[in-house]
Design goal:
22 helices; about 70% helix; globular
Length: about 450
């Protein structure tokens, strides 16, 4: 039975690791050099640093540039450090301008200078055009493989022009229509070019409703545009509506993959570009800050519990039931928090609808609170044969689920307003609120009615 792609990569990784342990670098290189550059990058990222260095030295030099494009930033920096200037210049020769712009910041100054001198003037100007935009914008993602036509020519003229060219850039589904000043007007789909009367002019056929993407648009919003419009490629325009480049779906897939990976890593205070085999001290230093933040929030919850130490000593049942209150609030809040962060990432949550969404989540919190308060209250009454304990935990659960809904809905908006990434700090803030409120309400009611 044929293996799927991930299984094949895992199989290759196991064999490569085994050969490297046995000192058979040549056999490991034979396998890795038969892989796609993206798969080679995956293998390199999955190897310990010593094995990675040995295998990198054995990778076919013709693949070096493409592999450097696919590895994450931290691994790329390490690989570049092991290459001399001549190897780096050779590796970057032939790369597209947008790809070269991705690698350039990681290269030594001497290599950058030599590389810029080796470029033709047109390519150097294109590189400078890409570098003026941040990497995570449409301008930073774009390439210059555009095919343009004027609106006043016939489709027959366009067809003869394309035949003379002999080929089209990869993933070309439309030609870009521009005026004499390169102002973007719309697109001419290849389907229309091939199926309409060749005597018609481009003016009569092209689509004016397809808008260009601003070069300043953030990369995650570019991905949303591609998703909403089902695009394969799109024109990139400047402030004057002039065509400056294009973005293709393969670049957008990279953005989506990186965003997905970053969302998961940010929840732990980490970065998708981190090397998982980074030195121990560096990894420990990065994570220590996050652990310290969590410790402070845990100490706050512990302090609240300490306020009711005498109550817990006299009513041991409260200590048994405390984790339930905190856990239920945390889970309920996480559901709302996740919904909000996703909606904000997709541009579906704004100031205009935030209040409506908050009220909806509060109603969900009330409904679920009533349901699970009744269930947990009855179970607690049965377990401890004490009706008051059942009532107290039911009230605490109801209160904490409502608070969790409010916190889960408002924390992301508040953090974003202050320029803090909700995916990074939202979970910590939410856990602190639900733990502190849950313990305070539960133990406070216990102190009032059970002593």
């Amino acid at each position: 039975m044929a293996m799927d792609a991930p299984a094949q990569i895992q199989h290759h990784l196991i064999r490569i690791s085994a050969f490297l342990r046995q000192g058979e670098v040549a056999r490991a290189a034979e396998i890795v050099n038969g892989l796609h550059p993206a798969d080679i990058a995956n293998v390199l990222e999955s190897l310990p640093r010593d094995d990675r260095s040995r295998l990198w030295d054995a990778v076919n030099p013709d693949l070096d540039g493409d592999v450097l494009l696919y590895v994450n930033d931290e691994v790329r920096t390490g690989l570049i450090r092991h290459m001399d200037n001549a190897e780096l210049v050779a590796a970057t020769e032939g790369l597209d301008t947008d790809d070269l712009a991705d690698i350039l910041p990681d290269l030594p100054e001497s290599v950058i200078s030599e590389l810029l001198q080796s470029l033709e003037e047109q390519d150097r100007n294109r590189l400078e055009a890409v570098l003026q935009y941040p990497e995570d914008t449409a301008g930073g993602m774009m390439n210059f493989d555009t095919t343009t036509v004027r609106p006043d020519v016939t489709l027959d003229v366009v067809l003869r022009y394309l035949r003379r060219r002999g080929q089209l850039p990869d993933m070309t589904d439309s030609l870009f229509v521009v005026d004499r000043n390169d102002k973007f007007l719309g697109v001419l789909p290849l389907t229309a070019l091939l199926t309409r009367n060749p005597m018609l002019t481009v003016e009569e056929v092209y689509s004016r409703t397809v808008r260009g993407i601003s070069a300043d648009l953030p990369a995650n919003e570019v991905a949303q545009v591609f998703e909403r419009r089902d695009l394969v490629s799109a024109a990139v325009i400047d402030h004057d509506q002039k065509l400056v480049g294009r973005i293709t779906i393969d670049d957008v897939v990279d953005v989506i993959r990186e965003e997905a990976g970053n969302s998961i890593m940010r929840l732990a205070g980490m970065n998708d570009e981190d090397d998982m085999f980074a030195p121990v001290v560096r990894s420990s230093r990065k994570r220590a800050i996050w652990l310290g933040v969590n410790l402070l929030t845990a100490l706050l919850a512990s302090w609240v519990i300490g306020l009711f130490e005498l109550t817990i000593e006299k009513v041991v049942a409260l200590a048994v039931l405390m984790p339930i209150v905190a856990s239920m609030g945390g889970i309920a809040g996480s559901q709302t928090l996740t919904l909000m962060i996703r909606g904000m990432a997709l541009g579906q949550v704004t100031q205009a609808n935030a209040m409506s969404l908050l009220m909806k989540e509060v109603k969900v919190g009330v409904l679920n609170g009533l349901l699970w308060a009744a269930v947990i209250g009855l179970v607690s009454y049965w377990r401890f044969d004490n009706g008051m304990i059942g009532v107290i935990i039911a009230l605490a659960i109801l209160c904490n689920l409502i608070v969790a809904a409010v916190a889960g809905a408002t924390i992301p908006l508040t953090l974003k307003r202050f320029g803090v990434d909700p995916a990074l700090a939202g979970g910590v803030a939410l856990t602190t609120i639900t733990d502190v409120v849950g313990f305070f309400v539960f133990l406070g009611l216990g102190a009032m009615f059970l002593l």
